[in-house]
Design brief:
Largest sheet: 6 strands, antiparallel
Distance between the termini: 62 Å
Strand order of the largest sheet: 5-4-3-2-1-6
Low-confidence stretches: none
Structural class: alpha+beta
Radius of gyration: 17 Å
Mean pLDDT: 82
Order of helices and strands: HEEEHHEEHE
Helix content: 25-40%
Shape: globular
Strand content: 25-35%
Oligomer: single chain
Number of strands: 6
């Protein structure tokens, strides 16, 4: 039995939940960066023989920093190496802005979504969920927890 959609009700982001999630993500990112943010610095967190998360510092200003977090999976890479479409899906990437004055971190770009909106009408052309921003930040939180709990770190510096 299909449930009728109420066209008048729209998704409303829960701002307090999103802000507290961004606070927690900020604290975890600071732990992973070990308070040594320099442009070009890259940290890798080895979770298993097949899974690695990388964190690269792209920009540092007085009040903000921009980092890119990438998941790299070596499972099936040999078979799919000549098909970049599939290897991109096996290598999800998030761009995260850290706001040092507000002590918050939020995902600003994810998997080709250049700017994540706080709310999307549903259905939409790209099939984004109404709470896409919340979901992406929860996903970042899961990556950060996994990196902190199981990751073995190695610092790579680009001179």
């Amino acid at each position: 039995m299909a449930i009728p959609l109420n066209k008048t009700s729209q998704y409303r982001p829960n701002l307090s939940n999103l802000m507290s999630l961004c606070d927690v993500n900020y604290m975890m990112l600071l732990r992973l960066l070990a308070d040594k943010e320099k442009v070009g610095e890259k940290r890798s967190f080895f979770i298993s023989d097949f899974l690695t998360y990388s964190l690269e510092v792209n920009e540092v200003t007085r009040y903000t920093s921009l980092v890119t977090m990438t998941q790299d999976s070596s499972i099936g890479r040999e078979k799919l190496s000549n098909n970049s479409l599939f290897t991109d899906y096996l290598r999800p990437t998030m761009v995260i802005r850290l706001y040092h004055d507000a002590r918050m971190a939020e995902v600003i770009s994810n998997q080709g979504i250049k700017q994540v909106k706080p709310r999307y009408d549903y259905p939409n052309q790209a099939m984004h969920l109404p709470d896409e921003k919340q979901q992406i930040n929860v996903f970042l939180n899961e990556w950060l927890q996994l990196s902190l709990q199981l990751g073995q770190s190695r610092l790579l510096t680009i001179d």
